[in-house]
Write a structure and sequence with these properties.
Layout lengths: L12 H9 L4 E6 L4 E4 L1 H6 L13 H4 L4 H14 L3 E8 L7 E12 L5 E9 L1 H46 L4 H26 L6 E5 H18 L2 E7 L4 E4 L1 H18 L4 E10 L2 E8 L6 H4 L11 H4 L10 H11 L3 E7 L3 E9 L24 E5 L3 H10 L4 E5 L2 H10 L4 E4 L9 H11 L5 E5 L5 H4 L7 E4 L4 H14 L1
Parallel strand pairs: 7-9, 13-14, 13-15, 15-16, 16-17
Antiparallel strand pairs: 1-2, 1-5, 3-4, 4-5, 6-8, 9-10, 10-12, 11-12
């Protein structure tokens, strides 16, 4: 039968097939037994299928190894409701997981002349549109990061001032050494929180987790925007009435809060106030942002979440501010992704209030069998450990933490492979960003091929991305810099028990 069109129109069959095959959109016809009746050339191309192979008469899900469950669920809904259903999915282009083709699919049902049920699936390539949105969102993020720059600089200047001041005192008098250690650890934690916050904001592969505290995120966000708000003579009043845990992505929630605070600040023209309140209401953690700015008309309120709609810059008439019109669209989508909701109240000339609600996390259980590492009684054994990192201070730190074990250090991938060939290591700690032509990813790939049973731990300060995420199942663990001594010791203790 080949990929020929099955059609009851006799003499019109060839002409119809030409039209069918030359449609710009992909089209697939599937019968009620999920067998492919027809598939045009555009669909074959979109799904990266071999056009020389035969698909008609084949089981639809046999060659659809991506988005299969989405199609099954959608077809069941279509059959049950009789409605057309739209959804989006992606395929790896050229079998490359980092080259994705984004597709919008529409599934509907109809009957043919013999009253047989058929599913009609249309496919449209939206890769270019998707990339445009991603680029615009990234530009929106860069604008936001520019706003944060002054706040970050201010915070780090305070951190360095405290550490430097106590270092000078300790240098002159030993009695200040303890204070220096306490201040250094405290300020290191403070710096770590800021860096973690910025990395979370930049993270493209943000995981959801339970036990997220909105108050902690809000405190960091308000610190980082404080300088910019002060320039605009805007006062922040932050009140915590209740602070339940939620499940979500810290980076995405941070982005929601940043967008709403920046949006509120842009609505205030000659100084004013933003009231931020965190409370619990009807099973939701609610963060509200109320400003006494210019407010909005009902007509504008009906469009504020539309893509590319803005009241700022060239699109909105306010030449002092600029925007891409994606800030609130992105905010809305992120809130929906958290199964939350966003409510808006506004009155022209009086101000606006945005209230974001997140479902309270119910997963607050504690593992009763958990024992802190410091309390565990471990029959420690000496390990042979290789550390691959080009930061000399971090090498010295790890050597000090793991002084009970035999540790080799190297700064290059090639030397690391040579050492592994000669020595029987129990675990290898690898940084990703390493001086030289090769990076840690390249080294790990080669180690996995040549030494598949050798445990690998990644220690990195890089932003989490698709490539780093792809190694999560290949290595024992990924530790983010700045790490603690306890985290490094935990690794050694784990493998000492196994050895």
């Amino acid at each position: 039968m080949g990929n020929d069109l099955v059609y009851d129109g006799s003499n019109d069959n060839n002409e119809f097939k030409i039209i069918f095959d030359n449609l710009a959109v992909g089209l697939i016809v599937v019968d009620d037994k999920m067998m492919v009746e027809n598939i045009n050339e555009a669909a074959l191309k979109l799904l990266c299928l071999d056009k020389d192979k035969e698909y008609c008469g084949k089981y639809f899900f046999r060659f659809l190894n991506f988005a299969g469950n989405k199609f099954k669920d959608t077809m069941q809904i279509c059959l049950r409701t009789g409605r057309q259903i739209k959804f989006s999915f992606f395929v790896d282009f050229d079998n490359n997981p980092f080259k994705k083709k984004y597709i919008d699919a529409t599934v509907g049902i109809a009957t043919d002349n013999c009253r047989r049920l058929n599913y009609f699936i249309t496919l449209v390539d939206t890769t270019e549109k998707h990339q445009m949105v991603l680029d615009s969102v990234q530009q929106e993020k860069m604008v936001t990061l520019g706003t944060l720059a002054a706040g970050v600089a201010h915070e780090f200047n305070n951190i360095w001032a405290a550490v430097h001041g106590y270092a000078e005192l300790a240098k002159a008098n030993d009695k200040f050494l303890k204070e220096l250690v306490d201040v250094t650890l405290e300020q290191a934690d403070r710096a770590s929180d800021i860096i973690h916050s910025l990395l979370s904001f930049s993270d493209k592969c943000q995981e959801f987790k339970s036990g997220v505290k909105l108050s902690k995120i809000l405190k960091v966000v308000l610190k980082l925007v404080s300088i910019e708000l002060r320039k605009r003579n805007i006062e922040i009043d932050f009140n915590i009435e209740s602070d339940p845990d939620v499940r979500g992505s810290e980076g995405q929630i941070q982005q929601i809060f940043l967008n709403l605070i920046i949006n509120a600040s842009h609505a205030i023209k000659n100084g004013g106030k933003i009231d931020v309140v965190l409370k619990e209401k009807h099973g939701f953690a609610v963060a509200s942002f109320a400003d006494n700015g210019i407010g909005m008309s009902e007509e504008k309120m009906s469009h504020i979440f539309d893509p590319f709609f803005t009241t700022k810059g060239a699109f909105g008439g306010d030449e002092k501010e600029s925007g891409h019109g994606l800030g609130l669209t992105l905010t809305y989508n992120l809130v929906v992704a958290h199964r939350g909701k966003i409510d808006v109240k506004s009155k022209e000339g009086e101000g606006s209030c945005f209230a974001v609600s997140f479902p309270i996390s119910t997963n607050n259980s504690v593992n009763e069998n958990y024992t802190p590492v410091a309390e565990k009684v471990i029959n420690k054994k000496t390990l042979n450990i290789l550390v691959v990192d080009d930061e000399v201070l971090l090498q010295r730190l790890i050597l000090t933490i793991l002084k009970e074990h035999s540790v080799d250090v190297t700064t290059t991938c090639d030397e690391a492979l040579a050492l592994i060939e000669k020595n029987n290591y129990d675990v290898v700690l690898v940084d990703i960003i390493i001086n030289g032509e090769r990076d840690g990813f390249s080294l790990i790939d080669e180690m996995l091929q040549k030494f598949p049973n050798l445990p690998i731990v990644i220690i990195t300060g890089m932003i989490k991305n698709e490539k780093l995420s792809s190694f999560e199942d290949k290595v024992e663990r990924i530790i983010r810099k700045p790490f603690t001594a306890l985290e490094i010791q935990e690794i050694a203790d784990t493998f000492a028990e196994i050895k």
